[in-house]
Known about the structure:
- 2 copies of one chain form a homodimer.
- Chain A is α/β, with parallel strands linked by helices and 251 residues long.
- Chain A folds into 2 domains: 5-163, MoaB/Mog-like domain (Molybdenum Cofactor Biosythetic Enzyme, Chain A, 3-Layer(aba) Sandwich); 171-242, CATH 3.30.70.600.
- Chain A contains 9 helices and 11 strands.
- In chain A, the strands form 3 sheets. Chain A has a 6-stranded mixed sheet, sandwiched between helices. A 3-stranded antiparallel sheet of chain A has the order 9-11-10, with helices on one face.
- In chain A, a hairpin with a 2-residue loop joins strand 7 and strand 8.
- In chain A, helix 2 runs parallel beside helix 7 (150-160) and helix 8 runs antiparallel to helix 9.
- The radius of gyration of chain A is 23 Å and the shape is elongated.
- The first copy, chain A, starts with a strand and ends in a 9-residue tail after the last helix.
- Chains A and B meet through helix 1, helix 2, strand 2, helix 6 and helix 8 of A and helix 1, helix 2, strand 2, helix 6 and helix 8 of B.
Amino acid sequence: MSEPTAALVVIGDEILSGRTADRNINALARFLSGLGIDFREVRVVSDDEAAIIAAINALRPTVTYLFTTGGIGPTHDDITAAAIARAFGVPLVLDQRAVDILAARYPSGGLTESRLRMAMIPEGAELIANPVTAAPGFRIGNVHVMAGVPAIMRGMLQSIAPTLVPGRVVLSETVPAAIGESVIAVRLGAIQADFPDVAIGSYPQMGERGFSTELVLRSRDAARLAAATALVRELVDTATRERKNPAPDKG
Amino acid sequence: MSEPTAALVVIGDEILSGRTADRNINALARFLSGLGIDFREVRVVSDDEAAIIAAINALRPTVTYLFTTGGIGPTHDDITAAAIARAFGVPLVLDQRAVDILAARYPSGGLTESRLRMAMIPEGAELIANPVTAAPGFRIGNVHVMAGVPAIMRGMLQSIAPTLVPGRVVLSETVPAAIGESVIAVRLGAIQADFPDVAIGSYPQMGERGFSTELVLRSRDAARLAAATALVRELVDTATRERKNPAPDKG
């Protein structure tokens, strides 16, 4: 049974220059997990029209839903709407619905040239409501174009949520282990081989008291997840008893 | 004058599931900025061999340096080394240099089957020293393969640094503005048009007291950067005097 899939294009020089640490990848990942939509890929590209178009057109045929963040404000460096229009081969037009939304937000006479820029939308797109600052995002085809400011992006996700077809949610269990992962790696691999329908991830962590490991099991099948988790817990208990002095490992 | 360029492939189900918020993109971005290397693109892919190979082979011909993070530990879900070997069409071999490094780290008899897995390296690769937990990364062609644990990744970056050819560092200036960006957008765009060699970014921020904007100017030419920054500061001063009541805007 094939589940819906998604990808994200993060648009912004500020991420690639290191000035800003992205927060939208994780927010979208958690949102999609809650809807049972498989998040397949992220690309981060600069404020460059050719780079944006290439990423959009490479990804949109491969997933159910494509999302973008960034580049839809009123300034010269906000080129996402124009790039998306070009990627779809449609004109960028002044959208009356968007004009009305902006007109209602600003005082009379406040709908300046630069603010009207935020009403330039690819022809044929649907608007995405912005519950935070009004200026809308938009959807064209399977591409959902959102703001880059994290609070606005999350508000837009809430507007989009009812329009997405959810999948079966992936269930997960976490088993903490106060040992390095190499101690259990072989036996963990054997459990994984017996449970191809349960993804078992091993995540080493460096803390003040040396290394520990988190084992994360994920599956859409609750019974199989429970069975695999029981075996992993037993393995960790056994290995912890075997080892008095946990040895650090690489992650 | 063409400067060195870079891209990154982040490998890890845990990023796409939302369990873990990536911290390596920003760390690499800051590292590259310091070396004057242009960071062009990031892709985040799952622990899937075909996805890893596709990303590696798409990006490595397009940049001077490609980096990867994640998937080089001792467990079954660590498949990066095998995927890289396949991407380059070379065998994955037990690397004696890596074996020696690991043997020196663990007590006698500690070089278990799972730990030896961390010495499986694509044939012809150079090792990347790991100052944190010993188990090395590696470089093959222009691809630098690093651990996903942030502290180890940063340690490996320090090992890699002397081997990279730096570019001219991009200088930057930040002009804070206690006004929404749409107020200055048109005049800011005019400055940008006069300074094509200075990238001017406008970053709205939502704080407790409403919206503000950070204007970030970036250029490799100090004199041009200074000239553009002076004009932007003057614009912000003028616009701040003009506006008593800053209006919020979308980012």
